[in-house]
């Protein structure tokens, strides 16, 4: 099949996936479609026990190292308003972040690698991951942790993944180090003695204390973290009282902290907890702080970032400097297991992701396929010559504490 015909077939697959979005943990039709396409190309699918999503495997003619490629597959609960001829047919849901784009890139790479498997020394596992967007709990962790907990990736020595992004169509955006935000949540309950609003000296004003806590928390980023490191703390929810003339006995606030540097993550927590507790004490009230560690920052390995730039150039692809943003991305869990690289693929002026008008240009997909295919071949060749020494231990379940 010529590249143009191959690209056309991928675009047809992409449009089908775009028309049939499914939410996290419910990607049954999507999984079945991916399975059929892979099996039609003779690609083996591992028995992982996953309810949705799957892991395919391409076995080279010779034994060797094991690497993995990843595409995510879930959609979002958003009503699409793009006007595309292949718009969502699933009312109330759309691929509003481009996971249809990402999974098609991984699908294309799997097909390409299967076609040249006789030239490979080693194994490539291709992850079609569910629930990247899902709200993670200990009982039902994020999709990356679910896949890792199957044990199917225990032998993987390097992970590679892509995601669509605003930018020049087909360009490869690469950055070493932290590229996404560690996703941490806090919940604070302030308690005191309620009283009549006309007699504040007979009780405690938890609302004033909560307001002071909100203001003081803003110094966590501005005064406790390195100013050149991307980070943000946002209080997103406040509740207190239920009438106009009573000072309540409790106030509740919650929010999130996002950091890209590992050290900053712990510093932010420690500083925030001290601020909350000491501010509450200054106002004569009590404060209980609960802290929840979610997915870490995607931490691209500098070596594989350099390799990625070289491979892109050799493959005739344009490269651009990548960037860090503070949105969460659970590919980070794979990079906690072994080093690797997560790149962005330019998809034009996409409008804001997680919005009803989000529409990446699918003509960037073939660049992603070429990049993943080429870096997979290079990684197998390189790892056949060296033994990696910088693997990291896996977080086996959703991280809720350090």
TrEMBL record:
Taxonomic path: Bacteria, Bacillati, Actinomycetota, Actinomycetes, Bifidobacteriales
NCBIfam families the UniProt entry points to: amidohydrolases
Keywords per UniProt: Hydrolase, Manganese, Metal-binding
UniProt xrefs under PANTHER family: METALLOPEPTIDASE, PUTATIVE (AFU_ORTHOLOGUE AFUA_6G09600)-RELATED, PEPTIDASE M20 FAMILY MEMBER
Protein name: Amidohydrolase
Record keyword Manganese present: yes
Listed Pfam families: M20_dimer (PF07687), Peptidase_M20 (PF01546)
Molecular functions per Gene Ontology: metal ion binding; N-acetyldiaminopimelate deacetylase activity
Note accompanying the cofactor annotation: The Mn(2+) ion enhances activity.
